[in-house]
Amino acid sequence: MFKPTGWDEAPVKGEYEPLELGGHVCVIKKAESDQTKSGRECIRLYLDIAEGRQKGYYEQSYKADDRPEKRWGCIYTQLIDGDSMSYAKGMFTAIEKSNPGYKWSWDESTLKGKMIGGVFGREQYINAKGDLKFAIKCMMLRSIDAIRGGVDVPPDKLLGTTSGQATRSNAYVEISKDDELPW
Question: In this predicted model, which residue has the larger pLDDT, 2 or 54?
């Protein structure tokens, strides 16, 4: 066996620590209004862990990602219309409670840097090889007081089946092709 050229300069990869399941105090790194593929109004919050042993988890993962099409690892999407309006109102209320003096003003740019509690669980998906895997996702938002008081880990969100075949799920949303953070 011979030593390949560039061996000493190559970064070490393969060690990966998943985010701990359950509640985390998060910071909103970016917020944007958008529409779903079906045309429904939504808001997308790009979150990172703000406290504890895994502080900065998603920023570190993003910076370590050397793929040409980088992806931010935690994007929480909340529909704001129709039967989802009450959930959206609950999310904005939790943001207000978590940031004394802040009042939601229908300007998503004011959300950057605000704190919010995230409850993280596992969601099943099918990878490119057709294997069933789990992604850790923010399943719901709560006030940071609720998170600090303790929350239960949500049950695994399993894929539905159609004619005995599992259906696909997107584990990540592409946000940037740049090498720098997208904000």
Answer: 54
CA atoms within 13 A on the CB side of 111: 24
Helix residue ranges per DSSP H, the chain? 57-64, 85-98, 144-149
Scanning the structure block, which residue is given the tokens 């070490």?
A: 12
Give the residue among 16, 17, 24 at the shortest CA–CA distance from 138.
24
In whole angstroms, give the CA distance from residue 77 to residue 120. 14
Amino acid at site 30: K
| CA gap 131, 145 in Å, rounded | 38
The sign of the torsion formed by the CA atoms of 80, 62, 140, 174 equals positive
How does residue 100 score in pLDDT terms, banded at 50, 70 and 90? very high
Residue 20: exposure state from Cβ atoms within 10 A (0-12, 13-18, ≥19): middle
How far is it, in rounded angstroms, from Cα 22 to Cα 142?
12
CA 150 from centre of chain: 20
Q: What is the pLDDT of residue 106?
A: 96
Q: Please determine, for residue 168, whether its predicted confidence score (pLDDT) is greater than 70.
A: no
Query: What token pair was written down for 77?
Result: 């999407």
What pLDDT does residue 167 have? Answer: 43
The whole-model pTM stands at: 0.80
